[in-house]
Design goal:
Blueprint: E1 2-16, E2 20-27, E3 32-37, E4 56-64, E5 67-77, H1 80-84, H2 86-102, H3 111-125, H4 129-143, E6 149-153, E7 164-167, E8 172-174, E9 187-190, H5 192-203, H6 216-234, H7 242-246
Parallel strand pairs: 6-8
Antiparallel strand pairs: 1-2, 1-4, 2-3, 4-5, 7-8, 7-9
Bound molecules: zinc ion.
Length: 247
């Protein structure tokens, strides 16, 4: 039996029974924590707002026999805009699923927590939440050890590549001189500005991650790259963002 205090973002909530919620909290020190919030769906529950999806809250957890329940919780920031605007909601829900799949329970470093905090804020406030979401997911994959190799040509090893082709099978870049089309091969041409933008995403600190401007065609290259790279790395097709294309 023990009590502990954690600050974290609610990445997922599942309704249980008549009025309970099972929530997953992205924390600074403990990765993902799964906890039961008893009665938290009741209108008068003190846990109602603090355990809602995307909320940032301070939790007092009670651990007993391997189960964690929430004793009390204090709302820090509700991120209301994420729930009020459908586009932003879909983007945040998609990114939460990606983070949920990438963050391990026992993760002790806080880079994913910090990235989520900045991403949540950017999805809430920036004019193009879909682009923000793709930038954040590429950074999340990189932080989790899945950095796409776009610094040199995997054929001639030259590091002087300003444009090229990304091969999703070998997960590497090929320069225009060495590129030979093979039928059925999953490749994507990356223009010079798209490649420069991808390098910015992978290299920049999170504080400057979303601070760039590129043209619409380049944004599209980033979105297509991000979507295909995620599918290849996670071996899973994420469905939520396709809702936005159908709206
Ligand atoms: Zn080459």
């Amino acid at each position: 039996m023990s009590h502990e205090h954690v600050r974290g973002f609610v990445l997922r909530e599942v309704a249980l029974g008549e009025a309970d919620r099972l929530i997953e909290i992205l924390t600074t020190q403990k990765g993902l924590v799964t906890a039961l919030a008893r009665g938290s769906r009741r209108v008068r529950s003190p846990l109602l707002a603090a355990t809602q999806i995307f909320a940032l809250s301070d939790f007092t957890l009670f651990n007993y026999k391997g189960r964690t329940t929430i004793d009390s919780a204090e709302l820090v920031e509700p991120f209301l805009r994420l729930r009020e605007d459908l586009d932003r909601l879909v983007c945040a829900a998609h990114l939460a699923e990606v983070f949920h799949d990438l963050v391990r329970d026992d993760l002790s470093d806080d880079r994913m927590y910090v990235l989520w905090a900045y991403s949540c804020h950017a999805i809430s406030s920036q004019p193009d939440p879909l682009l923000v979401t793709h930038v954040a997911q590429l950074k999340a994959l990189a932080v989790s050890g899945f950095t796409p190799q776009i610094s040199y040509c995997q054929s001639c090893k030259s590091t002087q590549i300003i444009e090229g082709w990304f091969d999703f099978q070998s997960q590497g870049l090929v320069c225009p001189k060495d590129y030979r089309p093979i039928q059925g091969q999953a490749v994507l041409r990356l223009s010079a500005p798209a490649l420069a933008c991808l390098r910015h995403i992978l290299q920049s600190p999170v504080e400057r991650l979303f601070a760039f401007n590129v043209s619409d065609p380049v944004q599209k290259e980033i979105r297509v790259f991000s979507e295909q790279y995620l599918t290849v790395i996670m071996e899973k097709k994420y469905q939520r963002l396709s809702l936005l294309q159908d709206l």
